[in-house]
């Protein structure tokens, strides 16, 4: 019999780990990660070949996406009954983090609930029902956050300002031909490879809420008053972290943990990074809300007013990488 320290992941465990990573949210559903599973470790790397030069020239969203995948990976290791020791080595790109299954430790009730929310979470870009999110519910969702990540709850006195900034961002994004071409290529309903999320669906376009999702050439941008009054019915969170590799990965982990906690509470959410890529909008948002740390992601939160369909993914096997061989075919 093999000693526990010489063990490798069983094929069942590999499935659980891979499927948890695959279901994470990612910018344009690009799934910019790969996973290697040597011994009883799980190594998550970013895929630099999955690039969005217009939307995400510096790869910030790619790192936030990898952070979300890392949050799922840790939960999967925990529900398999292992203590998860996470390390985020600086300066070893494309490696984002590795998780060592150190020794046996049963998952907590909280972790089981969060894990169960992985397959139920999806981007809810629609409007929400008018029921407000109670402060106690909100504090369960955003506490405790990770070290180095701040979650700013946008107060009602700022909805007008945020509305103005989102309107400005929407106009810039709508008029940027390069951005629009990239968006169309990545999120076309016609893609059949599990990449992109087929956002061009009647449900999405009819919503016509530019702050709720991605601004397209066809998006009708409402006036600031309408925008602000609609924003006032939502809970808006802003995840802030340093503009560093570790900061962005941590922001992604925190965002995903909050998202899963929200789903477990019966809430729905969608996230936005698009407006934060307009430099002037990002700077003005940070100044207006007195954010001490740079904003990385915006999250809209509320009680869902209907269901949203599940988006496709590449097959789980596509993300598995043997350390010596690159991505598996
Ligand atoms: C870093 C990051 C940035 C994102 N930016 C946006 C955005 O600006 N607008 C939007 O509608 N969705 C955005 N999303 C959501 C993705 O489009 C979504 O997660 C993906 O299409 C998969 O769909 P799902 O969340 O329903 O599983 C972002 C997600 C991540 C992780």
Keywords:
single chain, 329 residues, alpha+beta, four-stranded antiparallel sheet, disordered C terminus, binds flavin mononucleotide
CATH homologous superfamily identity of the largest domain: NADH Oxidase
SS-based class: alpha+beta
Counted up, domains total 2
Q: Give the helix level as a range of percent.
A: 25-40%
Shape: globular
Residue fraction in strands: 15-25%
Unreliable segments of 5+ consecutive residues: 198-207, 323-329
Number of distinct helices: 10
Secondary-structure element string: HEEHEEHHEHHHHEHEHEEE
Task: Give the strand tally.
Answer: 10
Major sheet: size, sense and barrel closure? 4 strands, antiparallel
At the fold tier of CATH, the topology name of the largest domain is NADH Oxidase
